[in-house]
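Section 3.1: Structural characterization of target chains.
Under the original work plan, the team committed to producing a structural model for every single-chain target entering the pipeline before any wet-lab resources were allocated. The record below documents one such target. The sequence was received from the expression subgroup and is listed exactly as submitted; it comprises 139 residues.
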Amino acid sequence: MKGYRPASAYDGSVAFKRLQEIAVTDAQPVSWRGIVYGTPVLSSENTPMGMVHEVLGSDAEDIFHGLRVGLSGTRREVMIEADDISDLSAEQIHTSLAAADFPALPDYREEATYHLASVGWLRKHLGWAKDSTRDEEPG
């Protein structure tokens, strides 16, 4: 076959040796939009602290605000601000917070948001309608 070389031909090449030196040990970083429900959240000491319940941000403005996290072993949900997140990957989220800092985080409180919509009995009037929560993941 033209262009075919057995694997042993690559063993001594400089490029092959360089590829062997590049060992990716950390998970591949992702955008804040690539975070999914249930991704583990770790403290700065790599202690598992909880799971992602919601990604908080504005798609229209491309602004990441933080994460709503359900803490392990409790029914509490807390917000971790974007400034406290040090690394985002598809496998796990690393924070700059120590494990001792997590219990002191305030409980997550969802703010009611509204949008302009047709309201009224016949939907003829423009007014404010509360945003739906149907697009949220169970949790």
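The beta strands are 40-42, 48-58, 63-71, 77-81, 85-88, 93-95, 114-119, 125-130.
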